[in-house]
Structures are given as C-alpha cells and as structure tokens.
Amino acid sequence: MRISYSSLETYKQCPQKYKFQEIDKRKAPKTKEAIFGTAIHSALQFMFSRDPLFPTLSEVVEHFRDKFMEKCLLPEADAARYCDVGEKMLANFYKKNPPWNFNVIDLESHFEVAVVDEIYNVSHTLAGKIDRIDKLSDGSYEIIDYKTNRRLPSQNDTDKNQQLAVYQLGIKKRWPHVDPSKVKLSLYFLRAEEKISTFRSPEALAHAENEILSQVRIIEEKTQENDFPPVPSALCDWCGYKPICPAWRHLYEKEKKPEIQSAINEFLELKREIDERKKKLISLASIVREYMQIEKLERVFGDMGSILQSRQERASWDSEKVREILSGSNILDSVMTVDPQKLSFIVRSLPDEIQEKLKKEARTVKTFVVLKVSRKKEKAPE
C-alpha cells in the first residue's frame, strides 16, 4: 500500500474523503486556500534556487502572483486581497531569511521509503515531499515545512507532530548514516513569522512508525469492508467533494421530492418543539423539586394529577479495588468483564464478608431523585 502523511491525515479527518481521493481517485476542484498555499510554496522554492544568483524580492513576488493568478478563479477584488496577503508574507519572510544566509541542500524533496509491517509480513511505501532541507554550520541538518495557516501550535503539539516524524523517517531511510538527534524538524508559520522546532529520538521514530502501521492496518480493514463513513465538520467548507458526498449531496440536488422535503421539515419542526419542551420540563422539575425539599413534601398535587419523589441509587465500582479484593478468586475474570449493573447482581451472590468489603472499599453510590407522574383517571359518565 502506498501511503503519505496527507493521506493518513485525510482518513483521520474524514474516511469518505479518503475513499474519494485515494481509492476512487476522483479529482476535486482545488479550493482557493489550496491554490494560495501552492503558489506560496512555489515562490519559496524559487527564492532559494540560485541560477546563478538568488532572485530579488520583487522577482519572488512576481513568481507568486503569476502562479496564483494562473489557477485562481476568484473575482478580481478577492484575488487582489489574496495577492496582498501573499506579498506581505513573502516580503516579511525574505527580510528575515535572506536566501544567501542558508546552505540549502534540497528543495521540494520527494522521498519513497519502505516500512515493513512485521505482524502481517507486508511492506508499504511511505511517500512524501519535504519543502526544504538545510545543512547547518555544525554539520547537522534541518527539515523545514512551510505553513500558511493562522493557527500556531504549542511546543507539545509540535513535539508530537506526525508529519515531521514522517519526514524524518524519509531522511532516515535515505541517509541511514545520519544520527536522528542531528536532525532538527521545523514548522515555519509564515503569517505569524514564527518557526517552531523539535527533535525525534530513535525511540520516538520507532513509535511513530508503529503508529503509522497501525493506521494503515485500520485503513486496509475498512477497505475490505468498504466502510468509509463521512464525518461532517467545519473542514467540509474546504472540501471539493461536497456535491457528491452522502453527507452533503442532498443539499445540491436541484429537484427534491416534495413529499420527502415535507417529511424532513415536519421532523425538524417536531424535534425543535421536543427539545424546547425538554428544556422547559427540566426547568419546571427543578422548581417543583426545590419546593418539595423546602416544604419537606414527598408528593404534590395539581389539576391533572400528582408528582411523587422517587429516590434511586446508581452504583459505580473501583475496578482496581475490586481486583485487589477478589485477587485469587475464580470469579475474578467474570466479574471484571461485566458492566456495573451486572457486577452489582453478581456481588449479591458472594459471601457476606466479601460483599461488605466490596461495598465499603470499592463501591460508590450516587442517589438521585426521579419525579414520577400519576395522571388523574377520568370519571366514567353516570
């Protein structure tokens, strides 16, 4: 199986999108954000390409504009706003990072490496593309990935970033002689003008590889079952598959069946009414319960019937304490695999001294009040 960080991330975000993109190989129109990001990356690649001199800032900006406008289908005013943002980002980056100050050894570096799943004795191809690789003055290396989004992650999130781990796995397979501790992994956020860096130990890389293989096993299993449900989220607004996605396709249908639309609308209206009534019911129950508590009443009466307070208990169990108390017992396995309700039932069949110990040390009981309604019976006509 051929995998990449982007395909794994797509599956995590939405299995249905993964199927469209990776299995069905359906082409989706690129979003304006994707076109913008591609143009920025192309300009930065051009910026560090000396032929024989490094390009000037104006040349880098012109390169970005040409690439963006070549694919952009936005109205002129919207396109101009994107261009302004891109030019500002590139100008700030160029000022802080003059290309002649860096020893760039590779740009847009493609890699393909084999990762072996020893459990199933099968090999997969891990592929990717690294924006930039620098060789630093101390002989170590730095992998840099450019980001155009606004969100700046924490250092902890960066330390766990799977994309950077994938890139280092690619470098490790290509250059096995390079010590992983000598490879800096960096995310450069162009809007914030911030670079966040991290390192991966051999143990962390092995863990990352196992995580990737675990994800691949799940995808292969779901592929056999053809089980790729859509996961609607805010990310759908940037997805080109919405018109054919089962979670959105109905919205794009030009001719909708009137009887179905009527049923949908009636359902939505009834659901709204029910939700509002539930909120009202909770509010009224709180008022009635508080009144009964203040007046020390167990039952109150209204024109249509009565309301009775019913106290119920719900037990929860400390599994570690249960295991400790029942250690060595032949019923331990059966008790530890049942739900709390069944566990409460099983405990009643144990010797009295064990029951008491369990109840005292491993059980927590919460009491809650339920209001039971009794409706008045209508009198039969005489």
TrEMBL record:
Pfam families referenced in this protein's UniProt entry, alphabetically: PDDEXK_1 (PF12705)
Domain PD-(D/E)XK endonuclease-like, residue spans: 2-246
Domain of life of the source: Bacteria
SUPFAM superfamilies, per the entry: Restriction endonuclease-like
Listed InterPro entries: PDDEXK-like_dom_sf, PDDEXK_AddAB-type, Restrct_endonuc-II-like
Gene3D superfamilies on file: 3.90.320.10
Record's protein name: PD-(D/E)XK endonuclease-like domain-containing protein
Organism: Candidatus Ryanbacteria bacterium RIFCSPLOWO2_02_FULL_47_14
Phylogenetic placement of the source organism: Bacteria, Candidatus Ryaniibacteriota
